[in-house]
């Protein structure tokens, strides 16, 4: 569990680390949106170059990105295989019943793979360089216009930041409970499926019971500290939009324009 | 059963930006049938150390000898299970691991995992419940209805039911009230004295170390900085102060009295030892003179 | 006038057979330190929850700083009370140290400029300023409790309630927190109500109230209470080291002081006694 790199924050002070989380969220949305417009070699090349440039600016070693991709390997492989066998059109290289390998199938598998990898890498870049809490702040700030329609933005943001705050605590607790049950002879990861499901119970029940007790304690502590409702509170944390944020945003908008222009090349 | 560490090093998350060395070149011996206390500050590596005692963790470098088994980085994860039965670990706040419908079933959970018939497991559980002093009427209750001190005893019984040779306890009295603390420590010493169980106790209570332990292992920053009898470990007040470790209350008080002209040799570690040396230096009640 | 005035307070949990708090009456004068002791399950923590209106009493009244605690006044009453709970993890609400200290002020609509100043002041007071950007996962229990104290101090309450605030800490963290509280109490003229079974914490109090089965069974100064010697265990307290020693010496027929003395005074007494030999 501890070796899981996907979605984790890697402390640093690079150019990307220092960007405003709102800017990074917007950049990420723009990039992912544009990926779906890419349709030929040049558009993918441009997107890849922008991504690699961002990774270099983030100063996070490439091997860590690769580790981040590893848990998604089977999902990627599965998608590609489905596309290869079921995609139809163009020259047929091989056929067996409903399965066939065609030119168009190969091309679309390649494109899907490319899109997947780009989207995963840009999201990983966001989580590697932005503290979860900053992401929550960014989301809250971007959702601010919804306050006008009485959407509980602040409450939602507090819920999000509280759950993020307790992720390490709960992970820690899960590890402790697993260790305790392993010491009582539970064998994780062996035996058949039924056996495996049975080993989950002694983990999940204590975890739920403790989490529930914790929730009660936390709500009492929050109330004792004067928490009444989420909306009418002042805010200690503040985000700062700097010129670097505007520059990168403009850069990504230009990239989006270029991708749409390059689409015409086919 | 004896357990020994031979130049053990352990890294968490090696090869990632979060890599962290929790144990450095640890060599130590836990003698069979004796009471060993492990002391040191929070974060000194004590918790990592005890997870090596039943191979929950395997050393990154060096090796751990548990009875006739050798565990090193290359040891396969299979066939480690028998170790879990010979070395029982009671973790910190062990009541957090309870999950069964009834107290008895929870205590019997361990034995059942080792292929004991459910009848035999129940018998083992009943016996363990008796050892920790749980009343019979509690056995059919849900563990979640019990008080904190009772839940703690259920959790300890759950490990004792495995009938381990070595019992490891990580701060078993933390968070209990004085009565609960006394009950747990009485139980632990009884297990060692009456059943010759090997005890490993992690604690911050120096008075407990002085009173019960035969060996003390002092950890700091992932390394063993001292091991020996309580008498040797507590003899050097300056060294303890340098490592921000407290003296047992009796030794502390004796040191205070020494400045007032009292004389102690050796330094008393328990109240009884202190009184034995102190009484002859004081006048008797009613102005009689002490011989 | 008493800053906390409780009279005939009774509370019973829905599924239980007996009241957890049973006809309890007591006053705490402003600036006093009062300890409430009792073994686990004696009703101590229920009392704390009643005092800040987390639970509503079945009968009886609570007046805090001249305000009667009711459903309507509960938020005003909470403004005057700061509370530190037992589990360091379950009261750390903020994502970082500074955020957590600010939490109570955010609830009270304090402006951001004032918050920034007070967060710094409060963290300096408890010696946690250099950890301001730390996440709770990277703090020890004692450090988290100090942050909880800073969060309380930042909203400048009149009363500090400690609900077994040191029971999950190691001895070092415990004495650390206790010293911080002592300093803060003096500096801010706080009234302290500590619910505890730690002997060192109880020894700090001006008065100790002993609760058992939901009732107050004794009220005394620490000096007087510690005379009980080994009976203290039944009250949920440890026997002080000096009391244990005095008892053992008396068993050997040695002359011992007639009343409870703390360690320092006992050492002096023994020294003088030795001179008469």
From TrEMBL, chain A:
Q: Which Pfam families match?
A: CbiQ (PF02361)
Q: What is the protein's name according to its record?
A: Energy-coupling factor transporter transmembrane protein EcfT
Q: Where does this polypeptide localize?
A: Cell membrane
A Gene Ontology CC term for this entry?
plasma membrane
Q: What is the lineage of its organism?
A: Bacteria, Bacillati, Bacillota, Bacilli, Lactobacillales
Q: Membrane-spanning regions, if any? A: 21-38, 73-94, 106-128, 149-167, 243-262
Query: Would I find Repeat among this entry's keywords?
Result: no
Q: Give the function comment from the record.
A: Transmembrane (T) component of an energy-coupling factor (ECF) ABC-transporter complex. Unlike classic ABC transporters this ECF transporter provides the energy necessary to transport a number of different substrates.
Q: What is the annotated quaternary arrangement, including any partners?
A: Forms a stable energy-coupling factor (ECF) transporter complex composed of 2 membrane-embedded substrate-binding proteins (S component), 2 ATP-binding proteins (A component) and 2 transmembrane proteins (T component).
Gene name of the encoded protein: ecfT
Keywords, A to Z, come to: Cell membrane, Membrane, Transmembrane, Transmembrane helix, Transport
Membrane topology of the entry: Multi-pass membrane protein
Q: What molecular function terms (GO) are annotated for this protein?
A: transmembrane transporter activity
Q: Which domain of life is it from?
A: Bacteria
UniProtKB/TrEMBL annotation, chain B:
Q: Which residues form the ABC transporter domain?
A: 3-246
EC number from the UniProt entry: 7.-.-.-
Checking InterPro entries in the record gives: AAA+_ATPase, ABC_transporter-like_ATP-bd, ABC_transporter-like_CS, ABC_transpr_CbiO/EcfA_su, ECF_ABC_transporter_ATP-bd, EcfA2, P-loop_NTPase
- Predominant subcellular localization, coarse grouping: membrane
Question: Which is an annotated GO molecular function term of this record?
Answer: ATPase-coupled transmembrane transporter activity
PROSITE patterns in the cross-refs: ABC_TRANSPORTER_1, ABC_TRANSPORTER_2
Cellular component terms per the entry's GO annotation: ATP-binding cassette (ABC) transporter complex
SMART domains with a match to the protein in the record: AAA (SM00382)
Q: How does it sit in the membrane?
A: Peripheral membrane protein
| Cellular localisation | Cell membrane
- Keyword tags: ATP-binding, Cell membrane, Membrane, Nucleotide-binding, Translocase, Transport
What's the subunit arrangement here?
Answer: Forms a stable energy-coupling factor (ECF) transporter complex composed of 2 membrane-embedded substrate-binding proteins (S component), 2 ATP-binding proteins (A component) and 2 transmembrane proteins (T component).
Query: What is this protein's function?
Result: ATP-binding (A) component of a common energy-coupling factor (ECF) ABC-transporter complex.
Q: Give the protein family.
A: Belongs to the ABC transporter superfamily. Energy-coupling factor EcfA family.
Stored NCBIfam families = ECF_ATPase_2, PRK13634.1
Protein name as annotated = Energy-coupling factor transporter ATP-binding protein EcfA2
Q: Which organism is it from?
A: Secundilactobacillus kimchicus JCM 15530
Taxonomic lineage from the root: Bacteria, Bacillati, Bacillota, Bacilli, Lactobacillales
């Amino acid at each position: 569990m501890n070796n899981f790199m996907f979605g984790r924050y890697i402390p640093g002070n690079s150019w990307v680390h220092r960007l405003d989380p709102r800017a990074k969220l917007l950049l990420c949305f723009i990039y992912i949106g544009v990926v779906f417009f890419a349709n030929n070699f040049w558009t993918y090349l441009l997107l890849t170059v922008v991504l690699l440039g961002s990774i270099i600016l983030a100063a996070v070693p490439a091997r860590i990105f690769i580790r981040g991709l590893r848990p998604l390997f089977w999902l990627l492989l599965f998608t590609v295989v489905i596309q290869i066998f079921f995609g139809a059109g163009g020259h047929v290289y091989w056929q067996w019943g409903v399965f066939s390998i065609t030119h168009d199938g190969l091309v679309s598998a390649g494109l899907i793979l490319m899109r997947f990898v780009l989207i995963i890498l840009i999201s990983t870049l966001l989580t590697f360089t932005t503290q979860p809490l900053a992401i929550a702040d960014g989301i809250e700030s971007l959702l601010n216009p919804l306050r006008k329609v009485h959407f509980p933005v602040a409450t939602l943001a507090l819920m999000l930041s509280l759950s993020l705050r307790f992720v390490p605590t709960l992970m820690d607790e899960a590890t402790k409970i697993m260790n305790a049950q392993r010491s009582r002879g539970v064998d994780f990861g062996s035996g058949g499926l039924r056996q495996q499901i049975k080993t989950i119970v002694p983990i999940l029940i204590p975890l739920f019971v403790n989490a529930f007790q914790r929730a009660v304690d936390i709500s009492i502590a929050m109330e004792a500290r004067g928490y009444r409702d989420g909306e009418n509170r002042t805010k200690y944390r503040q985000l700062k939009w700097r010129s670097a944020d505007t520059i990168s945003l403009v850069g990504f908008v230009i990239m989006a324009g270029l991708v749409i222009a390059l689409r015409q090349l086919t | 059963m004896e357990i020994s560490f031979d130049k053990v090093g352990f890294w968490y998350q090696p090869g990632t930006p979060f890599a962290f060395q929790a144990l450095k070149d640890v060599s130590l011996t836990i003698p069979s049938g004796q009471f060993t206390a492990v002391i040191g500050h929070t974060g000194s590596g004590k918790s990592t150390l005890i997870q090596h005692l039943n191979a929950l963790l395997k050393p990154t470098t060096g090796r751990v000898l548990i009875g006739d088994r050798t565990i090193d980085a290359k040891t396969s994860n299979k066939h480690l299970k028998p170790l879990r039965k010979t070395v029982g670990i009671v973790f910190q706040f062990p009541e957090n691991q309870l999950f069964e419908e009834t107290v008895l079933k929870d205590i019997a959970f361990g034995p059942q995992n080792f292929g004991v018939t459910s009848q035999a497991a129940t018998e083992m559980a009943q016996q363990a419940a008796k050892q920790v002093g749980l009343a019979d009427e509690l056995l059919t209750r849900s563990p979640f209805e019990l008080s904190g001190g009772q839940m703690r005893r259920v959790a300890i019984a759950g490990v004792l039911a495995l009938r381990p040779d070595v019992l490891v306890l990580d701060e078993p009295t933390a968070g209990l009230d004085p009565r609960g603390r006394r009950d747990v420590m009485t139980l632990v010493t009884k297990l060692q004295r009456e059943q010759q169980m090997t005890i490993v106790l992690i604690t911050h209570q120096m008075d407990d170390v002085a009173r019960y332990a035969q060996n003390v292992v002092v950890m700091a920053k992932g390394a063993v900085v001292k091991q020996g009898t309580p008498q040797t470990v507590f003899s050097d007040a300056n060294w303890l102060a340098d490592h921000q470790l407290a003296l047992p209350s009796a030794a502390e008080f004796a040191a205070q009295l020494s400045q007032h002209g009292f004389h102690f040799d050796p330094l008393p570690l328990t109240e009884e030892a202190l009184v034995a040396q102190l009484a002859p230096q004081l006048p008797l009640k009613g102005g009689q003179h002490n011989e | 006038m008493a800053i906390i005035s409780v009279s005939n307070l009774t509370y019973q949990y829905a599924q239980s057979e007996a009241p957890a708090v049973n006809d309890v009456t007591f006053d705490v004068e402003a600036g006093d330190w009062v300890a409430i002791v009792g073994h686990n399950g004696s009703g101590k923590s229920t009392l704390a929850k009643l005092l800040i209106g987390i639970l509503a009493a079945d009968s009886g009244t609570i007046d805090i700083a001249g305000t009667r605690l009711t459903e309507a006044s509960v938020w005003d009453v909470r403004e005057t009370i700061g509370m530190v709970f037992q589990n360091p993890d379950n009261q750390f609400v903020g994502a970082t140290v500074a955020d957590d200290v600010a939490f109570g002020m955010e609830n009270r609509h304090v402006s951001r400029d004032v918050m920034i100043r007070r967060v710094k002041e409060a963290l300096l007071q408890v010696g946690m300023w250099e950890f301001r950007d730390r996440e709770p996962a990277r703090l020890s229990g004692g450090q988290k409790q100090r942050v909880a104290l800073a969060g309380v101090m930042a909203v400048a309450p009149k009363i500090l309630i400690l609900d077994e605030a040191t029971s999950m800490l190691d001895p070092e963290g415990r004495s650390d927190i206790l010293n911080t509280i002592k300093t803060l109490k003096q500096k801010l003229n706080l009234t302290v109500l500590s619910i505890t079974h730690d002997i060192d914490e109880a020894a700090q109090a001006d008065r100790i109230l002993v609760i058992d089965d939901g009732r107050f069974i004794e009220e005394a100064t620490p000096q007087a209470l510690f005379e009980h010697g080994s009976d203290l265990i039944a009250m949920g307290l440890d026997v002080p080291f000096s009391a244990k020693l005095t008892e053992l010496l008396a068993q050997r027929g040695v002359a011992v002081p007639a009343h409870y003395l703390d360690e320092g005074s006992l050492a002096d007494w023994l020294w003088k006694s030795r001179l008469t030999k």
